[in-house]
Design a protein that fits this description.
With about 500 residues, the chain is mostly beta strands. Helix content is about 10%, strand content about 45%. The protein has a 33-stranded parallel beta sheet that branches. The longest helix is centred in the first third of the chain and has 16 residues. It is elongated. The N terminus is likely disordered.
Length: about 500
């Protein structure tokens, strides 16, 4: 073959590489995923992407867009699914129903804003199962019995609680259901009996009630979500971050949660629908109540929970709280690699009974806690930026690691290992009641007029650790460091069967 022939062959090969295959008659489609087209000037609705503006939504923060947004969701669902795009702007809305194979996609400057015009903008849904909180039954974003749904993007869903607080008393009455004396407030997100749920990278701010409620759901992934609630409505917290009730196969990672109530809750409300298989990692928790709470509403078993590599900061109650109080078993729970700073009660376990759920009018027997391991934890239970005044020190008189159960229903299997705990101390004899420390009593034997509380007593008889009624207790390398001398014992281990108790006091 001469040089001229070789030159021609090379030229043809080069042209074949440069010419698109479609020109040569071969139909080849790019299968790589494409982000939604958020251009206002381009084609607003493309296959798989449904821009709510195409359906009449107006992003001026004033126009009520409930029907337009729902029309976009319905069209997306009817065509097999895709993204419903919340594009640039602020879109006021009431209740919207998410449907199978539909994802809300929030653009970076897209805001879905909750209406505070009237409670009628939010549909009545499944009631809250906490006794006394049934009025929290409505929701902003709702789904029931749907599969493969989610909320994506870096935009924001704003519950508008800040605006609610600015309303006049007369205007706030518009959020009160006739015959009720409490303003009904919608949860931001409530998914009931759904599966394959993805919520990623969005901002969920200032909900009027719980930020999320996942009830009887499975296969949930929540990643990179920022939950912020600085506006407790009407003096009532009820501003939980992530709430899972009778859910399975749940993965939460890389989230920041600052709530006016508990940050992340794992609970149950049906004996035949347990909560199981939870992985919680790389999150930051702060706010008014607990960082991670397992239980309280505990009308069923909870098992297989791992909380790892999380930061707990500025929590006015507990870091990790485990409460089985409605007759069921919590087991196989692991907490590892935690850092806690300015957390009143860093670790709190309670087996008791109380009237919490709406599922029954009867108080149940004692709940059970078993097989709990907490290790590699660093704790500082005070705010080192505070002036540490005498009044501040006195206010910490209920701090400490607290574990309690009735003597007839002990906690079974608790390991505390490699924990460094720096506590303020400084409590004097007159700073706490001079009475016998209460035991966990059977609530079924109380007088009806007596208040049943999961948080009693609100004082501590020790300066750091109080563990009572535990079988198979292992304490391995628990270091206690005190800033000020405290007149209470450093720790009490009472009525426990322990194989190891390695506690060092500094």
């Amino acid at each position: 073959m001469n040089n001229k022939s070789l030159l021609i062959i090379n030229l043809l090969v080069s042209l074949a590489v440069l010419v698109p295959l479609s020109v040569l008659g071969t139909d080849v489609k790019d299968s790589s995923p494409k982000p939604p087209d958020l251009s206002k000037n381009g084609e607003r609705t493309k296959k798989g992407n449904y821009d709510i503006r195409t359906f009449g939504a107006i992003g001026d923060g004033k126009t009520l867009n409930t029907k337009a947004i729902q029309a976009a969701i319905d069209a997306c669902h009817d065509q097999g699914g895709g993204n419903v795009v919340i594009a640039s702007g602020t879109y006021l809305s009431g209740t919207i129903h998410l449907k199978s194979n539909v994802y809300l996609f929030l653009a970076p400057d897209g805001v879905l804003l909750g209406s505070v015009n009237t409670i009628k903008d939010y549909e009545k849904g499944y009631p809250c199962l906490y006794r006394g909180n049934e009025y929290l039954g409505r929701a902003f974003v709702f789904a029931k019995g749907q599969n493969n749904i989610g909320i994506l993007g870096t935009g924001k869903i704003d519950g508008n609680s800040a605006q609610f607080k600015k309303l006049s008393k007369e205007a706030q009455k518009q959020l009160i259901e006739p015959g009720s004396n409490r303003p009904e407030r919608p949860m931001m997100i409530k998914f009931l009996e759904c599966s394959d749920i993805h919520i990623e990278n969005v901002k969920l701010y200032d909900s009027l009630a719980w930020t999320t409620c996942f009830l009887y759901c499975e296969k949930i992934w929540i990643r990179g979500v920022d939950i912020l609630d600085l506006n407790a409505v009407g003096g009532l917290p009820n501003g939980d971050g992530l709430d899972f009730c009778s859910c399975s196969d749940v993965f939460v990672s890389d989230c920041r949660i600052k709530a006016t109530d508990d940050n992340l809750c794992i609970q149950t409300s049906a004996p035949d629908k347990i909560s199981q298989n939870f992985s919680i990692s790389n999150c930051v928790f702060s706010g008014n109540c607990a960082g991670v709470r397992i239980g309280c509403l505990s009308w069923g078993d909870v098992r297989n929970v791992v909380v790892e590599n999380c930061i707990f900061t500025d929590l006015k109650r507990e870091g990790v709280k485990i409460e089985s109080i409605e007759g069921h078993e919590f087991s196989k729970i692991v907490v590892r690699g935690a850092v806690m700073s300015n957390v009143y009660r860093p670790i709190f376990l309670l087996s008791a009974n109380a009237h919490i759920s709406t599922q029954s009018d009867q108080i149940q027997p004692f709940g059970t806690i078993r097989d709990v391991t907490i290790f590699d934890v660093t704790i500082k239970d005070f705010d080192e930026t505070n002036s540490l005044s005498p009044d501040y020190i006195k206010s910490r008189n209920w701090s400490g690691i607290k574990v309690d159960a009735p003597a007839t229903n002990k906690i079974k299997g608790l390991t505390l290992k490699n924990i460094r705990y720096q506590t303020l101390g400084g409590i004097k004899a007159g700073d706490y009641p001079n009475t016998e420390y209460p035991i966990v009593r059977d609530a079924r034997l109380r007088e009806r007029k007596e208040k049943v509380s999961c948080y009693e007593p609100r004082w501590s008889r020790t300066s750091a650790v109080d563990i009572r009624n535990v079988d198979d207790l292992v304490i391995d390398n628990l270091d206690l460091h005190f800033i000020y001398k405290d007149e209470r014992p450093e720790y009490i281990i009472e009525n426990c069967e322990k194989s190891k108790c390695d506690i060092k006091i500094h």
